[in-house]
Design brief:
This protein has nine helices and no strands. It has 193 residues and is an all-alpha fold. This is YqaA family protein.
């Protein structure tokens, strides 16, 4: 099933609307959607390495915009939408601890959440709930998300054919690793909190 999704995403890159789909996934992942944009981003960059930097820019911009939406959920709609999302991810009992983290490590929480497999949507919602400075939140999000997506663009633009051959040869192992990282990000949040 994952192989078919990967092949389908590779074929999607040639379609004119592919960047719009990538933007929608990147935006929604930063505020509520559980699947990271890397699932689309990497195959699209592999299919069109000459567009890797464009795709990285799309992900950076829409991820930050989605992060602002997540921030607003935490700031203005926490009692309804935000609380439901936090409960959905199983973190409702950890909110006060997360707020305390912001008081001590606010900038680091945003940077680490933006760079790592930790669920960025939780960082954005909790940033709004904690009342973290919106301008600093945006600047740190640009830095973290830009570093993440442009690093992927650098790898794909420089080593795309080699990486594609590696993925094709070891797809099952790499897919399993991706699933472990995805689940590990949520597990890390639960463990750390």
């Amino acid at each position: 099933m994952l192989r078919r999704l990967y092949d389908w995403t590779l074929s999607l890159a040639a379609r004119p609307r592919a960047p719009y789909a990538l933007a929608a996934v990147s935006f929604s992942e930063s505020s509520f959607f559980p699947v990271p944009p890397d699932v689309m981003l990497v195959p699209m960059m592999l299919a069109r390495p000459e567009r890797a930097w464009l795709y990285g820019t799309i992900c950076t911009v829409t991820s930050v915009l989605g992060g602002v939406f997540g921030y607003l959920i935490g700031l203005l709609m926490y009692d309804t939408v935000g609380l439901w999302l936090i409960e959905f991810y199983g973190l409702s009992g950890k909110v006060e601890l997360f707020r305390a983290w912001y008081e001590e490590y606010g900038s680091w929480v945003i940077l680490l959440g933006g760079l790592t497999p930790l669920p960025y949507k939780l960082v954005t919602i909790m940033s709004g709930l904690a009342g973290y400075n919106l301008l600093w939140f945006i600047l740190l999000s640009i830095l973290a998300r830009g570093a993440r997506f442009y690093f992927i663009a650098l790898l794909m633009s420089q080593f795309g054919p080699t990486i594609k051959a590696l993925i094709d040869r070891h797809f099952n192992l790499l897919a399993a690793l991706g699933v472990v990282l995805f689940i590990g990000g949520f597990a890390a949040i639960k463990f750390l909190l």
